[in-house]
Specification:
With 398 residues, the chain is of the alpha+beta class. The chain has helices at 18-24, 31-39, 41-45, 53-59, 97-109, 115-122, 206-213, 275-292, 294-298, 382-396, and strands spanning 62-66, 74-80, 127-138, 148-158, 162-173, 176-195, 198-201, 240-243, 252-260, 304-315, 324-335, 338-348, 354-369, 375-377. The chain is built from ten helices and 14 strands.
Length: 398
């Protein structure tokens, strides 16, 4: 669980304004909403200011809530304060690749009840749980005074060897929910390790199947997601200036970079951890746009930022420690206020051949400060729009 940050200054007033709450909820709250509100009552009513570590531990914790009374599915809940390092985006907001690492950490935390059994399998080196795909949608960015975040996790329908997990992050303040920050999805598969970097899907062990079923949907179950503002959902990127045609080679090459992997990037079963791919994606993106607009990365007073709003990665095969990972970034779409990028990840062998490990997409919107100092979608600056348009034109006429 994340340690307390020095940013904690007191979550604010202990009072709960019932009138405001009634205005926000036009209809009677559903059983799921009431369950969610109960799980957050300590967060609403407790100030971080002056708390002992033991008292703070009661607030920042992991727990289980029931979706529909005693017979509903289980929803894993973790309340935490991200460290300063997580707020590394240019607007001092949460940096998108950290959500991928959080998904992995949370996936392991929710398995605490069966951790011993998983360890018995995984520690042999013959079994593992691999990540097939991950997606992220950024829906908000406003935080409370204490930067308290809550993540809720549940599962979708599962197959014989695979399951999809759903993640939902919300920011919390004195009056409860502030905004829904992001949602994520992760598909994983239980596999047998056949050889170096080679795995084969196998049926879930009975203990794991039973555990997943506790979080699986029930027949006729209503939406269990939290009710909160989502200011960045369906944000428009504006007029389309360029859109790549269908096909793997229809995108416009922009940049590439190689990364040396090591044990630092690996896991207990010695494969490269899935969240590294999101960080490599972020590093390549930032290096390229830093070369176009270095001043926005170094100036303390930034007029605009390129904000990730959606990101997904699909994994084809395993990367291993000490592989050289070559990442390419291409332009898939150019819009009045944003971009769509396409990434590919390859293992680069000593003889120069490349083996594709994964691919992904990334959509970002340009956010500029308005008269009130808040970042809002705006037209791409010329320093970004012109070179991207020129690259698209050259590619089209090549």
């Amino acid at each position: 669980m994340a340690a307390l940050s020095n940013a904690s200054r007191g979550i604010g007033s202990r009072c709960w304004n019932n009138a405001k709450r009634r205005r926000r909820c036009a209809s009677s709250p559903s059983p799921e909403r009431r369950s969610f509100e109960r799980s957050n009552r300590k967060t609403r009513d407790t100030s971080m200011s002056g708390l002992s570590f033991q008292q703070a531990g009661e607030l920042l914790k992991i727990s289980i809530e029931k979706a529909r009374g005693s017979h509903g599915r289980e929803i894993f809940v973790k309340t935490f304060i991200p460290s300063f390092r997580m707020f590394s985006d240019l607007d001092r907001g949460l940096y998108f690749p950290h959500f991928f690492a959080w998904m992995g950490e949370t996936r392991e935390l929710l398995a605490v009840p069966i951790l011993d059994q998983i360890s018995q399998y995984v520690s042999t080196g013959k079994w593992s749980i691999v990540t097939n795909s991950v997606s992220l949608d950024i829906l908000g960015e406003r935080m409370g005074e204490d930067n308290i975040v809550q993540v809720r996790v549940w599962s979708g329908e599962s197959a014989q060897s695979s399951v999809e997990l759903f993640f939902e992050w919300t920011s919390l303040g004195a009056a409860g929910l502030i905004e829904k920050i992001a949602v994520g999805r992760m598909k994983t598969t239980w596999v047998e390790v056949i050889g170096h970097g080679v795995v084969k899907p196998r049926d879930f062990p009975t203990f794991y199947r039973d555990f997943i079923n506790r979080m699986s949907p029930r027949q006729g179950e209503p939406d269990i997601s939290a009710v909160a503002a989502e200011p960045l959902r369906d944000v428009s990127l504006g007029e389309t200036l360029f859109k790549a045609k269908c096909g793997p080679r229809a995108v416009v090459p922009l940049a590439s970079k190689s990364f040396e992997s090591s044990l630092y990037d690996s896991t207990i079963v010695n494969n490269i951890y899935f969240s590294n791919y999101a960080m490599w994606m972020a590093k390549l993106r930032e290096h390229h746009f830093w070369s176009l607009m270095p001043h926005i990365y170094i100036s303390p007073e930034r007029d605009g930022i390129l904000k990730c709003i959606t990101c997904n990665i699909n994994y084809l095969r395993e990367g291993m420690p000490f592989d050289t990972i070559h990442v390419t970034m291409s332009l898939k779409g150019l819009y009045e206020m944003g971009i769509e990028l396409y990434f590919e990840f390859f293992r680069e062998d000593p003889d120069g051949t490349r083996v594709k490990l994964a691919y992904g997409e990334h959509r970002a919107v340009w956010m500029a400060k308005n008269a009130h100092g808040r970042f809002r979608p705006a037209s791409l600056p010329r320093e970004i729009a012109m070179p991207l348009q020129q690259a698209a034109n050259m590619f089209a006429h090549a």
